[in-house]
Model the fold of this input.
Amino acid sequence: MAKKAVKTTKAGRGSDQFVLRLPPGMRAAIAREAARSNRSMNAELIGRLDFSFENALTNKVLLSVSKDLADTADLLRSLLASDELDLWSFIADQRARGVKLTQSEAIRLIVRTYLAEQGYLFSNVPTKQDKG
Done:
């Protein structure tokens, strides 16, 4: 006799079940992340799956993001080639503060600072300036 399908709106007893084989170490990683977010391992996995489905990029979105990145790169190139940005004075100012930056690092720092100020930077990766 076949099992009767049960419709539920959230995961729990009676919900569909699926056996999943994990590579070595992944179970421990999931457990750590679940503990960090105060959720069960099941809730952690469901949350991450939901997020991935909600945020799946379509080809149209990827093309749009790609165009935006290309436009931004063009804008940065024009800014760096203009007289509006005195990159070498910025680098000298940073060196006076004890932060030695290459040209690429200085540009990254300027962009990261701007993005953080505008609320677009979510990374906790320390910059060279943070390490000071």
About this structure: The chain has a mean pLDDT of 79. The two ends are 69 Å apart (CA to CA). Residues 59-81 form the longest helix (23 residues).
